[in-house]
């Protein structure tokens, strides 16, 4: 290896003193920030680089992306993390096996490629889940749609960091710095392009999920409208019948038919006739 790699946990108590002795103040401040967004900035002969990776740690949410802070010069790489990053673990294993990167450019290419691979795979899984939900809606099933909200939440949170990360990688691949050779920049363009494709896939998933939610809302609104319409027609039929039963059910003197044995049967026949007449009128008006 033609460079030194120094790796730290963000909570390491020795980190501030080591950074003060070996790293410029601005870079040291960037390496110790608790909250970061993807960025790529040249500082003198070095590069400040913040990246994000999907969270594949056990028991944690994939959209809770892990952050990686880097200070890169032509002969030294400093990485600082809060949680385990599998792309970094892959490089560590390669170095232990004697097949690790020989230059700073190779290290950055391996790291960015590893992060991009996992982000790309996650975007594909989200796309597949969206396909399944769309198929369920087209088939009329709703039992699998409880995950629509969480899926939208995951997509939005991933999109929040992948957009800036794509910009950071594009900037890194075109950066005028002694840290990277032209061959290194050429190698970095491929993961930058793949990151742009993953971003487009997430945008498509987000838009499809939004359209799916709108479709479900419209279907629910139409269903409620149909149910309300049916209830209105039923009320239209039974309202006159309720008036008749209320009228003839009054316990006052002078009601006709109180002493005639056939009055109840005649009233029932009249109510059936009224109901049939109302149904016929609704059909004639094309309400049924």
Automatic annotation (TrEMBL):
It comes from the Bacteria. One of its GO terms (molecular function) is cobalt ion binding. GO terms for cellular component: plasma membrane. It is found in: Cell membrane. The keyword Cytoplasm does not apply. The chain crosses the membrane at residues 229-250, 262-285. Keywords: Cell inner membrane, Cell membrane, Ion transport, Membrane, Transmembrane, Transmembrane helix, Transport, Zinc. Gene3D superfamilies: CorA soluble domain-like, Magnesium transport protein CorA, transmembrane region. SUPFAM superfamilies: CorA soluble domain-like, Magnesium transport protein CorA, transmembrane region. The keyword Zinc applies. InterPro entries: CorA_cytoplasmic_dom, CorA_TM1_TM2, MgTranspt_CorA/ZnTranspt_ZntB. It is a multi-pass membrane protein. Belongs to the CorA metal ion transporter (MIT) (TC 1.A.35) family. This is Zinc transporter. It comes from Litoreibacter ascidiaceicola.
């Amino acid at each position: 290896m033609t460079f030194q790699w120094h790796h730290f946990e963000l909570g390491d108590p020795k980190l501030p003193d080591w950074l003060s002795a070996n790293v410029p103040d601005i870079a040291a401040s960037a390496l110790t920030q608790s909250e970061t967004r993807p960025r790529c900035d040249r500082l003198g002969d070095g590069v400040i680089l913040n990246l994000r990776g999907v969270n594949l740690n056990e028991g944690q949410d994939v959209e809770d992306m892990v952050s990686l802070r880097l200070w890169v010069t032509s002969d030294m790489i400093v990485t600082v993390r809060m949680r385990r990053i599998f792309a970094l673990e892959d490089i560590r294993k390669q170095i232990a096996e004697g097949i690790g990167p020989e230059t700073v450019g190779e290290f950055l290419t391996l790291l960015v490629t590893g992060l991009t691979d996992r982000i790309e795979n996650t975007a594909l899984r989200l796309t597949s889940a969206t396909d399944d939900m769309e198929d369920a809606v087209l088939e009329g099933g709703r039992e699998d749609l409880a995950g629509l909200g969480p899926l939208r939440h995951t997509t939005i949170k991933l999109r929040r960091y992948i957009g800036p990360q794509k910009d950071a990688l594009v900037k890194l691949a075109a950066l005028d710095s002694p840290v990277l050779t032209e061959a290194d920049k050429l190698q970095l363009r491929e993961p930058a392009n793949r990151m742009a494709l993953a971003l487009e896939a997430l945008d498509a998933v987000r838009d499809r999920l939004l359209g799916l939610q709108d479709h479900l809302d419209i279907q629910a609104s139409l269903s409620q409208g149909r149910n309300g319409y049916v209830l209105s027609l039923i009320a239209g039929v039974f309202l006159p019948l309720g008036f008749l039963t209320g009228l003839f059910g009054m316990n006052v003197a002078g009601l006709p038919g109180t002493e005639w044995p056939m009055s109840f049967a005649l009233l029932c026949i009249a109510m059936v006739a009224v109901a049939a007449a109302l149904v016929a009128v609704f059909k004639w008006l094309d309400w049924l």
